[in-house]
Amino acid sequence: MKYLSILLHLYQPPTQLGFVVDDIVRQCYEPLVDIFTSDLNPRFTLNLNLSLAEQLRDRGHTHVIDGLRQASERGTLEFVDSGAYHPIFPLIPESEVRRQLELNRTRNQEIFGPSYQPKGVFPPEMCFSGHLAQLFHEMGYQWCITDDLPYTYHTGPSPYDFIPTMHQVKVFLRSNTWSNELSFHTWKGKDFAAKLHGALDDWFKGQDGYLILAMDGETFGHHHKYYEEKFLRSLLYAMQADSEMKLVTISELLEKFPGRPQFVPPSTWSASMEDLCNDDPYPLWHSKFNPIHHNQWVLTNHVMQQALEAAPRDPEVRRLLDRAVYSCQYWWASAWNFDPSQVFRGAYLLLDTLERACSVTANREALRVGRDLYNNLVFSIAERMSAKKS
After folding, report:
1. Are residues 249 and 316 located together in one domain of the fold?
2. How many domains does the chain fold into?
């Protein structure tokens, strides 16, 4: 049997504009709920960060929440945990990773009800490092997921008949090739299923095996209009007619394939072979070749230090810090996605956090240093903009 799992990642940053969320609900989230609750035997794994769940609730999109809850209760949808406000786990302290996971689970259980019982972790942007597996084990998770490209670069072909395991946590590997084929091209589901069936026949050679596809859920309907119908619904019909290929949630794979201790290198679903050769595993969020990233993280770490000192005396500092480390501000500073307005939006949230923290601790020197670090960031942004014009 060929087992196929599809993980969809739904997220909007805490700084997202309300009307944009409303548009994406109409274009993507509502159609996805229709797919998840259809009678076509859907089986999907879903990550929905608290950052988005709160915006759906606060903007009155409770029908989306109710639909996802219904799908989960029916067993057609499996929730997976993540960082509440989408920080890059390997780049923040382990204590903050733990807090982000605890916040995500506790608050999402309040929003989605008792059916929110994730067994696995989707590290934001699939940014993985081996020490995270130990933390996930301590917190009771059974599995996590990252991309297979770094694994194939360092170790060898991606497995299909066993699951790499680190610190007693199964580390599933997303198929970079097949996921990107689906995300960056537009396929009819039935055609994709036929092509995949043939490829898996060649790869599995008559044995049972599995393949995992994972991508932004916004791919369907928002990035590619009506793709949820053209691909997902069509795929479900094709899977019903295929007796040799079965759609399952990722947790169902735990029962079908054994674990095997394996080293899984630092990973993300956005690294290229060139990045791996340059030992630059998180190039879109902290590239060693990007001075803006350097200045962002010097500022971030300073703010974090001051906020953690002040947080026990002021819950608002803690609330601000939880949101201030969201990943998008660093992504927009990367070479391929540069948007100064989005970088500044994150920097302003960091400064708000710092000013609140320093008002609690009365540490004027820390505030002065933070403003100097912000000025360094502004200068590096100006240099990038000047270089682009020349």
Report:
1. no
2. 2
**Among 364, 114, 151, CA closest to 263:** 151
Write the single-letter amino acid at 18: G
**Tokens for 78?**
């499996």
Helix (H, G, I), strand (E, B) or coil at 246: strand
Residues 6+ apart with CB under 8 A from 50: 84, 85, 103, 104, 107, 108, 111
How far is Cα 315 from Cα 295, in angstroms, rounded to an integer?
A: 27
What backbone torsions phi and psi does residue 191 show, to the nearest 5 degrees? -70, -40
Q: What angle do CA 48, 307, 57 make, to 5 degrees?
A: 25
Cβ atoms of 144 and 132 within 8 Å: the answer is yes
d(CA 54, CA 107): 9
* Pair (271, 304) in one structural domain: no
pTM over 0.90: yes
Cα three-residue angle 294-144-201, rounded to 5 degrees = 115
Residue matched to tokens 């002040």: 310
User: What gap in Å lies between CA 333 and CA 343, rounded to an integer?
Assistant: 6
Which residues of the chain have a pLDDT value below 70?
390
Bridge partners, residue 5, by sequence: 212
Whether 49 and 14 have beta carbons less than 8 Å apart is answered as no
| Residue range(s) defining the domain that contains residue 7 | 2-277
CATH code of the domain containing 59: 3.20.110.20
Rounded distance between C-alpha atoms, residue 68 and residue 52, angstroms: 13
Are 118 and 10 found together in one domain?
yes
